[in-house]
Each structure stands twice: as structure tokens, then as C-alpha cells.
Amino acid sequence: MAESKKPPRKFRPEPFSYHEVVELEIDALTNLGAGVGRIHPSSFSGEESARSWVVFVPFSLPGERVRARIWKNDSSCSHADLVEVINQSPSRRQPRCSFFTTCGGCQYQHLDYQEQLKWKQQQVNELLERMAGIDHPVEKPIPSPQPWNYRSKITPHFQKPRPDRDLNIGFLAAGSRNRIIDVPQCDIAMAALNEALPEERVRIQQTAAQGKFRKGATLLLRATAASVHTNPREVVEEQVGDLKFHFLAGDFFQNNPFILPAFVDYVAGEAATANRFLVDAYCGSGLFALSLARHFESVAGVEVSESSADWARQNALQNNLGNVTILTASAERIFEQVTFSADQTSVIVDPPRKGCGEDFLQQLFSFKPQRVVYVSCNPSTQIRDLQAFKANGYSLRKVQPFDLFPQTKHLECVATLERSPC
């Protein structure tokens, strides 16, 4: 079955026509949250006819039979939109949010939470095997104590106001790089944020009506124990365990406070072996450097941002942690100021989503720390980097996922590595 709608100029017409509707079984989920099915296209003939073709269908689930509309053919797979679920998975749930499937923020609201955890574990396993060639068990993900209303920070966007359209204030549409969906409340945001959001939306709409916006912008709402903050330059306070952290509201800090204590304790347990020293190589405002200080004789936090380093220093001082030193260094010279004996040192690595840069990894391997605890919000780039660790004499000891982001494709993963004896 096919529709007559004209295909995009660069549409590849094989093996399916544009907007052709196909029926297939879904047997897996990708780490981007899409269902994966296989089909034998009618256009295949001869030896090709025995070969199955992969089709990705967002919002479908393993075990379901679905009808899907093709919108793109790549050289080895196709992409389709879900049209109908013919046979429904017993794990399918009614999404809590009415914007699910249109807003791009969540991918798994339709999937039972325990099943979300199982698939995320399997996805990390597959990445390890396929990307890094590492056969190592992945632990069961630690679930978020609160799978809904857990985010302490949201950043709604809006585009340049125009008189011929409504001002949408929300998040990117699913599958879009620039279209904004209007989202008046968010079911994964903390209740305090949803309470504050209407007033902030009215403020933006009134300002836009006065013609004061020449372009679009990103808003900030961050919840702390004190209040909800909307000024990114405002100093805020977060408490993790017995420690208090101060930083600017717009700066990075882990956004699921409900799982954060267990997350930090786990990293501490993996780093704090018999080693005397700790290097926190991407220390930010000091979350790991300060939280783990009691386990080590001396701690060095290293940060490329001078402003973040200043906050880490202030936080160490205010929490009376005299064994913590915060160093500022360029990405190419992170370990130059570290004087610890490498064979008695643990290093924590918590890079941005793009993973570790080549310059950083070469410094790390030259330093040769005894143990590395690699924390990542992007298992794909983390596992890519594990190949380099393997090639430089490190053995993978443990992989522990933490579900800091329920209802979404995102996952935090902690990999523990040890330098193999020479």
C-alpha cells in the first residue's frame, strides 16, 4: 500500500516507495528508543529475496506487530512512522503525558518502567560487544527512586515571535531539529517546576507581545530546596549527603536529586580501593572531588573552566575539606600539575556527551593511574573510549548503569577500569 504524496528530492526509492505502508514484527529497541523490525521487501528477487531488511519504527515495542509508513530508505535500512499497533505488547503502558510522541523529550513513556531498565541494560551490552569488542557482563541498572517528576532543571525554548503564529514555549518536536512544541507542563519535571512554569510562560508571552524579543531564547527553571530559580547567574545551593554545593543556576549539575546520593556513593566505592590519592579530571563545581574526599589522603580536582574551578574551591572551603586541591588546566595539560604516585591513584573521568578528547586520553595513559572510574551520560562515546583503554593496558572490571533519566533513551553509565600488571 502506498500514498501518492510527492517524495523529498533526495528520497531513495528502494526498497520501498515514499509513504509505503508495511506490516512487520518488532523484535528489539535501539539505544535511541526506536523499535526494530525486519521484513522481506517485495522488490527483492533472486538471492536477495531471502535477505531481511531492517526497519526502524519509533514508539513501537518488541513483541508487537505494527503497520508503519516509510519516510526514508538508507543503504541498509529504512525508517518509518508508526501507523497502527496490530498486536500490542503486554509491556505497553498508557503514556502519562499528552505530548508524548510529538515532544522529543521522552521516548519510553509507553513502556513499563521495569522493561525500560531491561532494555537499557541490553543496549549497553550490545554496544560493548559491537563497538568495543568487549565481552563483559553489564550489571542491572540502578532504578531512579522516582521515575516521574524527577528533573530538577528544565530549559524550555521559544523561537523568534511572529505576529502570524502562536508563540510556542517548550521543547523540540520529535524528529525535528528546529520545530518547537508548546509544552505547558512536563511530567518528568519536578512538581515545583511545573508550579512555576505557568507564571514564566505568561511573562514571556507578555514580553513578546510588546515586541521586545528580536530572536528566540532558552529559559531556565531550576528547583532547589529553597525555591525555583530562573536567573542563570543566580547562586544556588544543592545538598548531596552531608555536603553543600554552591554554583550558578545555569551551570551543569546532575538533574535527578532522588538518585544522586546512591550514584555518588557507588562512584566512591569503585574509586576508593587501597589507593591513597584521587584525581577528578572533569571536576566542575566539585561533586565527586568533594564527595569522595573522606576516602583519600589527598584529592586533586582538575577543571578547564576557571569559573567552575572557583566554585569548586569555595565549596571545598565551605565544607572544611582541607585535603582537596582544585587545579585549573587546559585540556592539553590536565595532568601536568598532578604530583601523585600513579600506582596509588584513582582517576574519575566524567566528560561531556562527546566523550574524552584524544589529547586527554593520551595524557591519562601517560600518567598511568592504577584505577579509572569512567562516568558517562552517553554510553556510545564511553564505549568508544573503552577501546583506547583496552589498547593501553586497562581491563574492564565492572559496568554499572544508573537510570538518571526514566522515560527517556538516556542513561548514565559507570565503568571501572584497572591497569593490568606489566
Q: What does the model show?
A:
The protein has 422 residues and is of the alpha+beta class. The protein has three domains: 1-91, OB fold (Dihydrolipoamide Acetyltransferase, E2P); 116-146 and 259-419, Rossmann fold; 153-229, no CATH class. It contains seven helices and 21 strands. The chain has helices at 113-132, 191-209, 260-271, 287-291, 306-318, 358-367, 379-391; strands at residues 21-29, 34-39, 53-58, 65-73, 77-87, 153-154, 157-158, 170-172, 180-182, 217-218, 221-223, 228-229, 235-240, 243-248, 277-280, 298-303, 324-328, 345-349, 371-376, 394-402, 412-419. The strands form six sheets. It has a seven-stranded mixed beta sheet with strand order 17-16-15-18-19-21-20, sandwiched between helices. Strands 1-2-3-5-4 form a five-stranded mixed beta barrel. It has a three-stranded antiparallel beta sheet with strand order 6-11-12, with helices on one face. β18, α6 (358-367) and β19 form a beta-alpha-beta unit. α1 runs parallel beside α7. It is globular. It starts with 20 loop residues before the first strand and ends with a strand. The model has no long low-confidence stretch (mean pLDDT 94).
For the secondary structure, the number of strands is 21
Biggest sheet, strands in spatial order? 17-16-15-18-19-21-20
The CATH architecture of the largest domain: 3-Layer(aba) Sandwich
The helix fraction, in percent, is: 10-25%
Number of helices: 7
- Any idea how many domains? 3
Shape: globular
The major beta sheet can be summarized as: 7 strands, mixed
Class derived from helix and strand content: alpha+beta
